Amino acid sequence: MNREQSKATMSIASHHKKVVVVGAGWAGLGATYHLAKQGYDVTLLEAGAYPGGLVAGWKTPGGRSVEAGIHGFWYPYRNIFSLTNELEINPFTHWTRSSQYSPNGLEVESPIFQDLPRLPTPLGTFVYTQFKRLPLIDRISALPLLYAVVDFDNSDEAWRRYDSVTARELFKQFGVSGRLYRESFEPMLLVGLFAPGEQCSAAATLGMLYYFILAHQPDFDVVWCRGTVGEKIFRPWVEHIEKLGAKVLANRRVTDVITENNKATGIVCGDEVFDADAVIFSVGITGMKKIVANSPTLQSRSEFRNLTNLGAVDVLAVRLWFDRKINIPLPSNACFGFDETTGWTFFDLNALHDEYRDGPGTVVEVDFYHANQFIPLQDKEIIPIVQQYLQSCVPAFAGAKVIDSSVIRLPQAVSHFAPGSYRHMLPATTSFSNVFMSGDWIITRHGSWSQEKAYVTGLEAANLVISQLGEGTYANVLPIEQDEAHIQTFRQLNRNWRQFSKSILPDFWLP
């Protein structure tokens, strides 16, 4: 057999190997797309009515676009930006500035960091961020925290060292002032990890802060989708996937896994069974817990039973249409201090979305995280609260009239990285030899977060399938940008010290 015949045989063999991917968010679509390109027979199952999971967009009965919250795309999202280039789509705005408000008014404005002279991390973030009220002495109190940033290198050892500590304890331990914590760090946690500091893992806090803000000066720069992510990214992406021969099936809720000899052979959705040579689960924590609750097969394994120890956070997404144009200084805004345990954001969709750019009135998206107290309220109770909050930030909202609205409740919608949760999180591999995991809550050493992490873990799961089934080319996962030289040096010195101290000191388990 010559080389060309061998290639043809390999292609046919891989075509007949069936992969079932569960969950059509960033992770599931990423895994499906790459495996379909390699010739696998891929079936993607989505429990909801639309591909996209939490970022799927849809239309109201009146034909207006809505989605389950607004999601930014940060400077370090190298793999997602590479994907949109490959798909030859241009879904993003230009880089945007952002601001932060409290009930007292404007607190912080952020520039476009990549446009400014680059300073060694984290000096650029410290120098260029424009605090309006926070005294310098409070900002300086964060300097001792840099040791924890250096010490936390995303290794398994570092996660175990910091995960049992709360973020609030971490900041207090390193001498961060109470005002800096209340007015800077906790607001970041409420919109970055979606919970107050006493409910956030210190390990997750350090990982999130480093990736989005502290690793490199431009990391906090962000672009936004020029419409719903479902319309601008997922719809053309699904079209590409289906052209490659993969099947994308909505309204399919997984109820069990069929196994034989420690391998999955099929996925059960009610009365339907989908044969599989490999399976990738790409759903959020809440969705995975529901699958396990219905699946005797998964319940038989402790790693899946232990998922019941993980949690998620409530989200409330409100979109308001006003009867007039309102001047909102910057398109993206984070807010704190309105409710003690809730963070919220608001976005000027006239500035961000093509659909509303030339509209006669203002359209605003307002998203609440850790929104437990708002979920039970009726729409007619929520909308006046939202407008009152908006006018505290931008007084012109006081005289405007809401002419249409959308309120979307998302109970247990986003991952909660609680203290002690790391021990229950799953790696990409499982005790089933051909069942793999992906999603923004899966353990990975890549170092990314949020949508980028979900997409990366989808590619990593696809690579594990290729390794397991023996056919195809591995996906090229772009690594995060290397640490700057001084951070690399500090981290190496710290590792050397830790290794040396272990040989002469007791094994202290606290960081």
From TrEMBL:
Pfam families: Amino_oxidase. GO terms for molecular function: oxidoreductase activity. It comes from the Bacteria. InterPro entries: Amino_oxidase, FAD/NAD-bd_sf, Zeta_carotene_desat/Oxidored. SUPFAM superfamilies: FAD/NAD(P)-binding domain. Residues 27-466 form the Amine oxidase domain. PANTHER family: OS04G0560500 PROTEIN, PROTOPORPHYRINOGEN OXIDASE. This is Phytoene desaturase. It comes from Dulcicalothrix desertica PCC 7102.
